[in-house]
Amino acid sequence: MLSLQHISKFYQNGGNKNFVLNDISLDIEEGEFVSIMGPSGSGKSTLLNIIGMLDEPNEGFHYFMGQPVHNLKEKQRSALYKQYIGFVFQAYHLIDELTVYENIETPLIYQDIKGAERKALVADMLDRFQIVGKKDLFPAQLSGGQQQLVGVARALIAQPKLILADEPTGNLNSKQGEEIMEIFQTLNKSHGVTIVQVTHSEKNATYGSRIINLLDGRIDSSTKL
User: Fold this and answer.
1) pLDDT category, 145, cuts 50, 70, 90?
2) Which residue in 21, 158, 139, 38 sits closest to 86, CA to CA?
3) Are strands 67-68 and 16-28 parallel, antiparallel or unpaired?
């Protein structure tokens, strides 16, 4: 599904390069559930953002769904992202001016899905995450955990082929966290959705089929579960 070859991300500091990612090569097959772990500052979120085309490396080659991402124009990358990828952000990234309902609906508008079908899909998500009563509220009126649930619902609604999750349960209580991880596991095992998550949680990491440990911007180890 995706292949990163000799990916580096660095910042120039005078004559020196400060590497965030240093010569990362990584292949992820369709249907895998990969957990990326490592200490703070090891490059986990940067790697996830590069996989998700939200950030660009300074060096290396990035292939996704057979497309050479490193050669694509921004508009082409954006189209690829919207068609195939759902992103669950640690900081929610909800749109403040939109209600819960409208936030969840947004990816469907990008995909030109008809109004009646959008309505049914959003209703299903509101029900699944038990937030029907919150649908007319704005993000600022929600707790952190509720905002995270809305973020997950928005990421899943367009039925992406790849879900990228940055600390997906970081702001949830343990019960909500387990429910989210079980939803991810079901999507992966029953629907073949590929999932890549960044997590500090050993428990969450074991939901996956492979754990990749980063250290100082490099892959320190890769373990199949």
Assistant:
1) confident
2) 158
3) unpaired
Task: Give pLDDT, residue 85.
Answer: 95
Max CA-CA distance within the chain? 57
Intra-chain end-to-end CA distance of the chain, in Å: 20
Instruction: Say how many C-beta atoms besides its own lie within 10 A of residue 1's C-beta.
Output: 17
| Residue of 1, 106, 9 whose CA lies nearest to 60 | 9
CATH fold of the domain at 2-94+161-224: Rossmann fold (3.40.50)
The pTM score is 0.91
pLDDT tens for 171-186 read 788 888 998 899 999 9
Q: Look at strands 162-166 and 2-13 and give their pairing.
A: unpaired
Query: What average pLDDT does range 12-34 have in this prediction?
Result: 95
Distance CA 199, CA 202 (A): 8
What's the residue count for the chain? 225
- Given this model, what pLDDT does residue 50 score? 97
